[in-house]
Amino acid sequence: MGVPCVRVPTSEGEATRTALADRDLVDREHEITVESGDLYIPVVDPARVPAGYEVVDRDVPARETQTTPADLLGFEPSYERLGDVVILDEDDAERARRIADAIVDSDLRARTVVNRASKVKGELRVREWDVLVGESTETVHREYGHEFALDIAEVYFSPRLATERHRVVSQVAADERAIDMFAGVGPFAVPMAGRGAEVVGCDLNPVAVEYLRENARRNGVEDRLTAVEGDVRDLTEEYAGWADRLVMNLPHSAGDFLETAVELAGEECVLHYYDIQHEDDPFGPGERAIREAVADADDDYAVTVETERVVRSYAPHEYNVCLDVRLTEH
Question: Which GO terms describe its biological process (predicted)?
């Protein structure tokens, strides 16, 4: 009898596995298999697999017994993987140490284990870490066929947004001109350039910009990606009216940069605007802010909201959301 599996190209395998694991959908009693360029990821409940994934029945072998952290602890610990770094979010230092030791003693591949020691803070959006195992906080993360070198102690990066990034990047055409206004190490910018777009990525964090340049080279898109260190508001002199697409992934304060976004927008431009809002009205404040910025601009644009999407829960009664908005110059 076949086992329900999500079938994806191998280039999308790790990001898909992570997305399914975040929803507790990965069937750990059966092996993930590869055939003819496709990865087959067994799932426990095909009815809960998000739309957009292909589910097929397939004969896959039962998984050989491996020692997991849960086997050693007697409970299922919560952690994230970013390359070969395992990330914990434990308030109890003793519990964090127990989990780190179990990860080392298990069959889980990990070079470094860290525990969050602070919230993301400052205009460079970095956090402090307690390094429990290993020494280096630098790693290489693979996502939808691209590689991203980064140091989690020096830059901001969330592996949980892989599916959302892929959704946006999948809309990009080869002849586009795109600006990632808060690019970080390039998880939006590099794949957009990989689709043939001409991309400008801007960030205040000089370490992030160096990684952005390295990641452009690592993925063979350095000829189509311009990395700029500094405030995105300084781009308007050179890139006014240039962009066909703008990514504004700075949820807490993207609204402060809407005037700049309108200045950068070309005659027709899609804006991916990220926001944090209360569940009672998750999309209204962002749409109103965009319309107000357009109304105040010198150029006259029609504003069309094409997509309203809840990306994830952020806090009790608050959502991280995205609005895909098309600006069309009259």
Answer: tRNA N1-guanine methylation
